[in-house]
Amino acid sequence: MKMRNWQLPLTFVLFMTGILLVSAIEALQGQEDLPTKTQSENLIAKIETQEKELSELEKQIDANRKSLDKYQESISSGKKEEESLKYQLDRLKILSGISDVEGAGIIIHLDDNNKGYEAAKNKDPEHVTANDFLIHDKHLLYIVYELREAGAEAISINGQRVVSSSDIRCMGTTIGVNTIALSPPFVIRAIGDPDRLSESLERKKSQYYSLKMAGYPASIEKQSKLIIGAYKGSYQYSYAQPKEEQ
Amino acid sequence: MWVPIVGLLIGLFIGWALNIPIPGVYAKYLSIAVLAALDSSFGGVKSIFEEKFNAAILLTGFFSNALLAALLAYLGDQLGVDLYLAAVFAFGVRLFQNLAIIRRELLSGWAKKRRALKEKRDSDE
Predict the structure, then answer these.
(1) Chain B contacts in chain A segment 6-25 (CB below 8 A)
(2) Which of A165, B30, B91, B110 has the highest local Cβ count within 10 Å?
(3) B31–A13: do the CB atoms touch at under 8 Å?
């Protein structure tokens, strides 16, 4: 019976211990879920903040791209401006004659009417002067104007480019173009529509036509491609100033 | 002799079957209580071997130790001191001491038995 003395209380204690042990283990297992839960919540929060950051960065990228587009647009518009400026510059270079130009046009060969002079002298030596059979400055001037009227874009006389400030005047036995003395035979080059230029020159009452009728050796040569050299002089403007736009 | 072990198994089974829901916050205190209960159990076993078994001491020790341990842990938490470690330490040390005593008693008991058996055999011869 002495054995029974301890058996019951110990059984009870062990029984309680067993219940407590299992409960504690289960509770701890349940507790393990808690940290995982909070961990996952933390992870979710982290992910959410990072997603927010990501979306903000994406917005920034979008904004940056837009500003980049703007810059590129302005650059390209600048390029357009540059191109138009370059085009204008090229046109102005052609107009001012400071660059070599090439294109279709005509070449006019003119010379003094030496044959006519000889013939006239033989016929009536007293009333004939050599002056009447020479090419004069005004002849060239008129031809130049006629060429310009027909749309000539570049003109040169014996290699001298005729520009807006060019002078064509008598220099005794020679003709001055750009203050350079030129002597016959004259070769006038003009770039423009060859047919239109030659038609304009061969019209009745035109300077070229009258010279040709008068017996001057004159001929027109149509060219699909000819080169006219640049004006080698300088432009000097001492008085004229560009008027500022208001 | 097998009755207490059967009691332990039944207790484990009932605890598993009941599946008492305990909030995670109190799980720590329950663990301390379990430690106290284990300590009491081993203490009881030890007292049997030492032939000093007292049911009242065992039962009061079981409940008071478990409750006090849990309360101490709770108080420690409220104070911001890990006081439950003291309970863990105290019960842990006692557990191993009790286990050592039980082991020694079992061994000496086994040796006594063998000697008695040998003497019996010798006397038979």
Answers:
(1) 6-24
(2) B30
(3) no
How far, in Å, CA of B119 to CA of B124, rounded? 8
How does pLDDT run across A44-83, given as a tens digit for each residue?
888 899 999 999 998 998 899 888 888 888 888 777 778 8
Strand order in the sheet with A174-177: A168-171, A174-177, A180-182
Structural domain span for residue A125: 101-228
Q: Write down the pTM of the prediction.
A: 0.45
**Is the CB of residue A184 less than 8 Å from the CB of residue A190?**
no
Give pLDDT tens digits for B67-97.
888 888 888 888 888 888 888 898 899 999 9
User: So what's the ipTM on this one?
Assistant: 0.79
Of A6, A17, A30, the CB nearest to B53: A6
What residue in A sits closest to B14 (Cα-Cα)? A19
Q: Which of B11, B23, B55 sits opposite A18 (nearest CB)?
A: B11
Burial B75-101 (b: 16+ CB within 10 A, else e): ebeeeeeebbeebbebbeebbeebeeb
Nearest to A112 by CA among A217, A226, A23: A217
Q: How many independent structural domains does chain A possess?
A: 1
User: How is chain B split into domains, by residue range?
Assistant: 24-124
Residue A151 has pLDDT above 60, yes or no: yes
